Amino acid sequence: MIIDLSNFLDSGKQVMSFSFDISSGEFANEDISSIVDPIHIEGTFYMVDDEILIETEGSYIYQAPCDRCLAESSNEISFKATGKLMEEKAGNNIEDEESDEIVYYKDMKVDIATYIWNQIASSLPMKFLCSENCKGLCQKCGKNLNEGTCDCNVETGDLRFEKLRELSLND
Questions:
Q1: I need a labelling partner for 104 at 20 to 30 A (CA). Which of 35, 95, 153, 155 fits?
Q2: Residue 112, C-beta contacts closer than 8 angstroms, at least 6 positions apart
């Protein structure tokens, strides 16, 4: 995902936009098999007070089993991010200034693959649900409770207090 900045930097333009679709195969070292291709990216470079800022927006379809009911489902996930573009020079110590918000360019070209991957990785859901009000599975029989109730007698309450329920207060 190399973007040529020469027209932007040499022309004195204040804004340069870009838009593209990428496949999850672009991130060969990362396991993102749950992302359905393509990943859509839109962004803009801005020149502000001799600094170059980058704003990106992206969206992709995430397909995986629901963490509550195990049903295969998919949701569209969107992300937004901003950062700063800096020229990579011999005097720059990239390791000291390494940040998700800083993107380095060299020879009027910027590779934003790592920057985009960081945004995708931070937008991946920690807990993936088919819907916000997913009821999950029955604790006894394993039936998907989104499809209807089961005939199991499931007691509610904290299992740590199960022995206390056996006590009789009439003694």
A1: 35
A2: 1, 3, 43, 54, 56, 103
When pLDDT is cut at 50, 70 and 90, the band that residue 152 belongs to is: confident
CA pair distance 57, 19, nearest whole angstrom: 10
The pLDDT tens digits for 28-80 are 666 667 888 788 999 999 988 888 899 999 999 999 999 999 999 999 999 99
**What torsion, rounded to 10 degrees, do the Cα atoms 44, 47, 49, 51 define?**
80
86-90, 122-126, 138-142, range with the lowest pLDDT: 86-90
Q: What's the chain's average pLDDT?
A: 83
Q: Which amino acid is at 70?
A: L
pTM for the full model?
Answer: 0.71
Is the peptide bond preceding residue 125 cis, with omega within 30 degrees of 0?
Answer: no
End-to-end CA, the chain: 76
Contact (CB, 8 A) for 22 and 38: yes
Question: CA geometry: angle at 130 spanning 115 and 71, to 5°?
Answer: 115
Beta-carbon contacts of residue 134 (< 8 Å; ≥ 6 apart)? 66, 68, 69, 146
